[in-house]
Amino acid sequence: MTAWKDMELTGWGRASAAKTRACRPERQPEVAAALAETGAEGIIAHGAGRAYGDAALNSGGRAMLTTRLDRLLSFDASTGEVVAEPGVCFRDLIDAFVARGFMPPASPGTAFATVGGAVAADVHGKNHDRHGSFGDHVQWFDLLTADGETRRVSAESDPELFAATIGGMGLTGILRAVCFRMLPHASPFVRVRERRIRNLDEFLAAFAEIRDTATFSVGWIDALARGNDAGRGILETAEFAPGEAAQMRPRRARAVPVDLPGFVLNSWTVRSFNEVYFRRVPEGGRERIAPFAEFLYPLDSIHRWNRIYGRKGFYQFQCVVPDDAARAALTTLLSEIAEAGAASFLAVLKTLGREGRGYLSFPMRGHTLALDFPRRAATDALLRRLEAIVLSHGGRVYLAKDALLSPEALRAMYPKLPQFEQVLARVDPNNVFVSDLARRLALKPVRGAA
Amino acid sequence: MTAAAETWLVLGGSSAIARAFARVAAQDGADVLLAGRDRDDLEKSAADIAIRSGRRAAVVDFDATDFKSHAALIEQAKREAGAGTLGIFIAFGTMPSQAEIDADATLAFRTIESNYTGAVSILQHAAPVLEAQGRGAVIALGSVAGDRGRLKNYVYGSAKAGLGAYLQGLRARLFRSGVTVTTVKPGFVDTAMTFGLPGMFLVASPDAVARACLAAARRGREEVYVPFFWRGIMTVIRNIPERIFKRLSI
Question: What would the pLDDT profile of B131-189 be if each residue is shown by its tens digit?
Fold first, then answer.
């Protein structure tokens, strides 16, 4: 008998929440046992809870917390091949392998995210142009499917189920183990170059110049800037720095102790922050040597930073638009956002290199923009306008961040959705694996509406 | 790989606290022997520990109530430790609900055997080995449930109380050979045993408890509560007069 606990789970943005019945297996056989106890209410795997919206939530149904399945099962130092349980997080990979010359092949902006989540969202990082997304490095995975069987799935053994699971938001089953290749690196330290970018055109030109050569790149953008300044920001690039060493300060992570009141983040405080953040980089740019992990996960030193948005939470919006539409799309998006004055200081612009291997993989060759919006009355409407802009420019919205997309927009943005649905019909005809996201996007029927 | 200066025999190695302890000990430079019944699970943990720490992690079969096997197990652990120091970490046990026990008298005996008799058996075999090596440590997980018999948990509590008394005596015996015995009494810990139970508060993570266990043993502490404030809570609970306590349904 599995122990189930009634609890409320939230997305990282805390604008989405679900009352759910959760279990938390610690040993592998408990995973299948818990699934066997699941009925029509359905279940979804829930890892570190770092998806921003409702991807890992299942209101009124069940959730399987995978955080205790956190073991590294094998490592081959000659190839960098790792087999990990789904609850292993990027912090574990960094701690275990960076000193041995390997890095996670693609890494989201937080090291607290899990390997299971990385597969489910086909996550990308600051090296996407060079190395692709997480799914590009997956060799195989063991997937518990609705029939209670665990299958070892690779791109060769079952290409459709493989492509439906990479980026499939957990809807094909529950991962029990994932085999992927780590990448060799030349140093645990990187040389980070920061430079000011005066506007969007300069940003696009800078990315065009560096995207094929820089190992890591990411742009911070001041989404409140308007007119001639629209699109201004800081471009960071990083290269491994063999022979260099920075001081490994064991920086103590601080936590945001309480929910900040909603008024703390207003357009004036954010505008001031952005001004300071922009000017802290001297006009001629600057360089520093940093531990690789510190560069990759700047926000991880502030635990529970999602509390700065207060109790109502926030939405994160992330889209990608194809290169040839980038200028037009980003100009329109930024002007809409600046007009609304609703953006926060966490706005990120970067390039993506190629399509992922999953039917619902987010990446495509293009430019991606990500921003946080405090949840206010007008936010829903703003996000709908942004979605429409993205759609009209041939782009798509990232499901790991999303909480508001419509089924119609999803269908238009993800052309391989029919293939995805075919696989679901084959491996999960009774809709055992469900989430609030899946119901919202009509990937699964709404409960009771048979 | 050279044998570590220290090898921990972790008994009941599949539990969340034992898993965390083995990880912490290996990261601190020790080799670990994971002992328990679920070999498949223990091998996964051993692989994990070896990958993360670079230390040796091996699996040995152990059944707390198969008393006849305990002598051989201790022999094996001694061999594995080689010239290094053998340490013993006791984390096995079961905690059926009192209602289940009240419905099945044999479950009461099984609870006592797994929590108390098994620990006594293994430690009786280990004591001469530890005396002979003249150093090392025993860490055993007691429980705040052993501090006072309660309506909700008295069979488990009595087994842990018995274990506590046994460890006090063993501590005095091994003290004479330079071996420390640390009784750790965790309050509520976020494990599979407590997941979903009502009334949990101030819950500690297995990792925090594991670190506290190792730190307490390093300092040669006799009895520690983890987190520390449980000492205060239990002082209050121990001092409630029995004629009142019997009326409470805690």
Answer: 999 999 999 999 999 999 999 999 999 999 999 999 999 999 999 999 999 999 998 89
CB contact under 8 A, B41 and A95: no
**Parallel, antiparallel or unpaired: strands B180-186 and B223-226:** parallel
Among B46, B38, B207, B48, which residue's Cα sits nearest to residue A84?
B48
- Please report residues of B whose CB lies closer than 8 A to that of A23: 195
Query: B79: Cβ–Cβ under 8 A, 6 or more apart, which residues?
Result: none
- Cα distances from B176 to residues A343, B171, B181, in angstroms, run 68, 9, 11
ipTM given for this complex: 0.93
Q: Looking at B116, B156, B166, B225, which residue is catalytic?
A: B156
Nearest CA in chain A to B48: A72
Q: What is the pLDDT of residues A190-243, one digit of tens each?
A: 999 999 999 999 999 999 999 999 999 999 999 888 888 889 999 999 999 998
- Residues forming a β-bridge with A316: A372
Exposed, middle or buried by CB within 10 Å (0-12, 13-18, 19+), for A276?
exposed
Residue B55 dihedral angles phi and psi, to the nearest 5°: -90, 165
Closest by Cα among A144, A139, A116, A138 to A46: A116
Residue with tokens 């122990």, as numbered in its chain? A3
**Which residues in chain A are contacts of B197 at CB distance < 8 A?**
3
Q: What is the pTM of this model?
A: 0.94
Alpha-carbon distance A436 to A144, whole Å? Answer: 20
CA dist A322 and A153 (Å) reads 31
- Closest residue in B to A76 (Cα) is B51
Chain B interface mutation, best of A4, A21, A72, highest count of B Cβ atoms under 10 Å: A72
Q: Which residues of B touch A71 (CB under 8 A)?
A: 44-45, 47-48
Query: Which is nearest to A23 in space by CA: A31, A13, A15, A12?
Result: A31
> Residue length, chain B?
250
